[in-house]
Amino acid sequence: MSDSLKRRAAEAALAFVEDGMRLGLGSGSTAEHFVRLLGERVAGGLKVVGVPTSGKTEALAKQVGVPLGKLDGMTELDLDIDGADEIGPFLALIKGGGGALLREKIVASASRRMIVIADASKRVAELGAFPLPVEVVAFGLTATLRAVEKAAGALRLTGDVKLRIRDGVPFLTDGGNHVLDASFGRIPDPEALANRLAGIPGVVEHGLFLGLADLALVASPEGVAELKA
Asked: Which listed residue, of 59, 163, 181, 191, carries a Cα 20 to 30 Å from 134's Cα?
């Protein structure tokens, strides 16, 4: 059921795509549905240019025939379509479960509009049940981890902050960085935490996406709801 709902949300996003658009192409399972559906529209004559947020999305877009461009060659994108790990009040998001948070945030920030697509399980009353990804450089990793814990502690947030491990080795992002997963359980003040994390030298980016999305298309068995910021 969850996969069919993800596809339903992705289908709803196609209604916002217009001929000639420059599109941000997100990462993750729901965004993959959108890219595949977009490929079908392109095969039918739709003209768009996509900017992928990860190597995996880039490979899929090429496979299904979506023309790609580089963000450096564009002033801005018309629309960014991406998924989320959690959608909280005012469309505050946690993203980065797949590790593409830095590129996802760059693309979202360079877009006139960001639309989030998800199934209803991603909607929460308060962010934090999903571990918050924090992308960090390898140098001084332990010191950075401790600084993240200290920043969270100043906001009375507790929980494990762990280095992401995949297949027995530290996970690396497309940019060659590590990811810390912070299991706080609840984040009552996402903006305060975002500001503190941004001030830590070893932190490249964090998975709190605040003030970027203006619409979420959330699919449930009852249909697709449009949530506005």
From this structure: 59
